[in-house]
Design brief:
74% of the residues lie in helices and 0% in strands. The chain has 26 helices and no strands. It has helices at 2-9, 17-27, 41-144, 150-153, 158-172, 177-208, 211-221, 227-238, 248-263, 270-295, 302-323, 332-348, 351-373, 385-395, 415-435, 441-470, 484-510, 515-536, 539-555, 575-594, 598-619, 626-644, 649-662, 672-676, 686-693, 702-708. The longest helix has 104 residues, at 41-144. InterPro entries: Sec10-like, Sec10_HB, Sec10_N.
Length: 709
């Protein structure tokens, strides 16, 4: 059994049957687990049987012990349950006693309260009677004309004297004047004297910085008529030495911050006192300062006046925002707004008229100064131009615009002027946002926008476009300078700046008002008007084509395509082709730099189509030998390279077709029909093909005519 216990309970590891059997066999002599021992199965079996019997005995003993412990546990559980029931009964009894005690305490408390009420009912009349007796005693002293009581003669008892005289003053007001005029006069005189003494005492305490004494005196004066005078004295003395720097707004903020920490320790109504201090600062200090700053420039210098008004109003509203942190009563927002309005009302009523007047004169001066620097006198362009231009665009005729004006390369557009105008307008929008009443803000912003449109768009950009249009040379001019594209380039850049200001500064002011649609429509009209005039600049393309014609007429020779010596041609393409392509490339680059968006493609397409027509018609003027035809093909190939710079599919397609047509100038007669039925020429009119074949010098030969018929 001892061995069983040893095997079963050795260590704290969980019981494993295989390991248990292995250990038993190892410890049994002849078990075969030890080295060098002979295996004895009988002895091992005998050991196992004995061990099993010992385990069975041990199991029976443990089972009896378990049953005994279970019976003991059940017995103790019953005893514990019985004890819990007894405790619950005891608790119920204690709770009942507590309820009875609570009811008894409530009954006693009710009796005590009732007794207290009875005592108070007896004591209050007694106190009133005593108080009335004292007041009658003091009243008799005034009636006799001699104040003997210590409370009136001792200066240290001014607080008690003030309380008595305040009550006597109220009583005296109820007495008939004819019988008690003299005593009423004496009481009023004493009331006034004490009031003055208290105010003087408050003033002295404030100068000494004695907060506790100020609080005591203020509490006494609270019931006197002169309490408001006490507050006035406090406000006046608070401001002594507070405004010594140049920044009155910062001084005011510091003063209010200091008083806000102090006023609650002195007065019973600190928010009223602080509000009265702020009102005094606004109506006296700030109003006087604002008037001095604005009246000086109101009639003489509108620019400085507007800057000062904006600055002063902004600093005043910033001060108001700081004061919002303090307790000033229920509706401090309305209170502060009224104070600000009282200061600036006379200046804000006509603000927008001053703003518009200044903006108009300033913008006109900026423009005039620019034109004077150019020694240019603005000329009237005339009316009805837009309709005339629209009709011109509709008809696409080549009628001249009128007498050309030589601008000497000047675009009459200035980045500096534009920046100055936009800066002035930006500042005007900022002032408008700050100084306008919310209900008038969209309307005022629209008026400022109208000024910008008038001077920037109409008087500057539109005038430059009109002048540029008038300066476009006729299509037959030689060595024409196409400055209109420079005008377009600068106008495009300027209008982007205009559009940015529209979105950044005007839109936030009108976004939620009916003026939004009006402004958008006005902007749309301006864009359309300018686009019409820019479209009118398409006549510049006529000038470009004219320049190409002059180059071709001057440089192209008939012998280029019908050389005298067919075997001695050393050039790859003609001189006329080189110069035309160089000119075209410059103009394409200029157009790309002058315009943006879809306008670039539209203009380049128009120029490309006209360029193709010019070359097509030009080639129709010459006769071509075999080597001349090859040279024409080389020229067209170069023109096609130039056409690639347009990056327009239609233009490149036109020159591809023209290149294919030029092959008809050199192809063998037997192959003409095959070439004409090729992919690029199959859809062309037969007359066009025939017109190119006729340009060959050998066209009259019977063989060629027979093959092409």
């Amino acid at each position: 059994e001892a061995h069983c216990k040893e095997f079963l309970f050795c260590g704290q590891e969980p019981f494993v049957a295989d390991e248990y059997i292995e250990r038993l066999a190892w410890r049994t002599p002849g078990g075969g687990s030890r080295g060098g021992e002979a295996f004895d199965p009988k002895r091992l079996l005998e050991e196992f049987v004995n061990h099993i019997q010992e385990l069975q005995v041990m199991d029976e003993r443990i089972q009896r012990k378990v049953e005994k412990l279970e019976q003991q546990c059940q017995k103790e559980a019953k005893e514990f349950a019985k004890k819990v029931q007894e405790l619950q009964k005891s608790n119920q009894v204690a709770f009942q006693h507590f309820q009875e005690l609570d009811e008894h305490i409530s009954y006693v408390a009710t009796k005590v309260c009732h007794l207290g009420d009875q005592l108070e009912g007896v004591n209050t009349p007694r106190q009133r009677a005593v108080e009335a007796q004292k007041l009658m005693k003091y009243f008799n002293e005034f009636l006799d004309g001699e104040l003997k009581s210590d409370v009136f003669t001792n200066s240290e008892k001014i607080k008690e004297a003030a309380d008595i005289i305040q009550k006597l003053h109220l009583i005296a007001q109820e007495l008939p004047f004819d019988r008690f005029s003299e005593v009423k006069s004496k009481i009023a005189s004493k009331y006034h004297d004490l009031e003055c003494q208290l105010i003087q005492e408050f003033t002295s305490a404030q100068r000494r910085g004695e907060i506790s004494r100020m609080r005591e005196v203020a509490a006494v004066l609270l019931h006197f008529k002169g309490y408001s005078h006490c507050v006035d004295v406090y406000i006046k003395q608070c401001q002594e030495g507070a405004f010594l720097r140049n920044d009155v707004f910062e001084d005011a903020a510091i003063l209010c911050q200091r008083v806000n920490k102090q006023v609650g320790e002195i007065f019973s109504n600190p928010e009223t006192v602080l509000a009265k201090l702020i009102q005094n600062i606004f109506e006296v200090k700030l109003q006087g300062y604002v008037k001095d700053q604005l009246e000086e420039h109101r009639k003489s210098d509108a620019e400085q006046y507007l800057k000062n008004l904006y600055d002063l109003y902004t600093r005043t509203t910033n001060l108001s925002s700081k004061l919002m942190e303090f307790n000033l009563g229920t509706d401090k927002q309305t209170f502060l707004s009224k104070l600000i309005k009282s200061i600036f009302i006379s200046y804000l009523e006509n603000y927008i008229e001053v703003e518009i007047g200044y903006l108009k004169s300033r913008s006109a001066m900026i423009l005039q100064r620019y034109y004077d620097s150019k020694n240019h006198q603005k000329r009237s362009i005339g009316t009805g131009g837009i309709q005339r231009i629209k009709e011109r665009l509709r008809q696409r005729t080549n009628l001249p615009l009128g007498p050309s004006i030589d601008t000497h390369g000047e675009t009459f557009l200035s980045q500096e002027v534009v920046v100055n105008l936009l800066q002035e307008t930006k500042q005007a929008f900022e002032r408008c946002h700050r100084l306008s009443d919310p209900s008038d803000l969209p309307k005022n912003a629209f008026r400022i926008f109208s000024m910008l449109v008038e001077f920037l768009c109409t008087e500057h950009i539109d005038y430059a476009l009109e002048t540029g249009l008038a300066g476009i040379p006729s299509s037959d001019s030689k060595n024409a300078n196409l400055y209109f594209l420079d005008v377009v380039h600068q106008a495009n850049t300027i209008f982007h700046l205009f559009d940015k200001q529209f979105n950044d500064h005007l839109m936030p002011l009108i976004s939620s008002s009916p003026k939004l649609s009006e402004c958008l429509q006005k902007k749309k009209d301006i864009i359309e008007q300018m686009e019409v005039k820019l479209d009118m600049g398409i006549d510049t393309l006529n000038c470009m084509i004219g320049q190409m014609k002059h180059i071709l007429a001057a440089e192209q020779k008939k012998t280029d395509f019908k050389p005298e010596d067919e075997n001695n041609v050393l050039i790859q393409y003609t001189n006329a082709c080189v110069k035309v392509c160089g000119y075209v490339r410059k103009q394409v680059e200029k157009i790309r730099n002058s315009m943006d968006g879809k306008n670039v493609d539209t203009v380049l397409m128009e120029l490309g189509v006209r360029f193709h027509r010019l070359i097509y018609e030009h080639l129709q003027q010459y006769s071509y030998s075999c080597m001349g035809g090859m040279l024409a093909i080389c020229d067209v190939a170069e023109y096609r390279k130039c056409a690639k710079d347009f990056k327009i599919a239609l233009v490149l397609q036109l020159f591809d077709t023209l290149h294919a047509l030029c092959n008809l100038l050199v192809v063998a007669p037997d192959n003409l029909k095959q070439v004409c039925s090729g992919e690029q020429l199959a859809n062309l009119d037969k007359n066009i093909l025939h017109s190119f074949v006729q340009l060959r010098v050998d066209y009259r030969s019977a063989r060629l005519a027979r093959h092409f018929s």
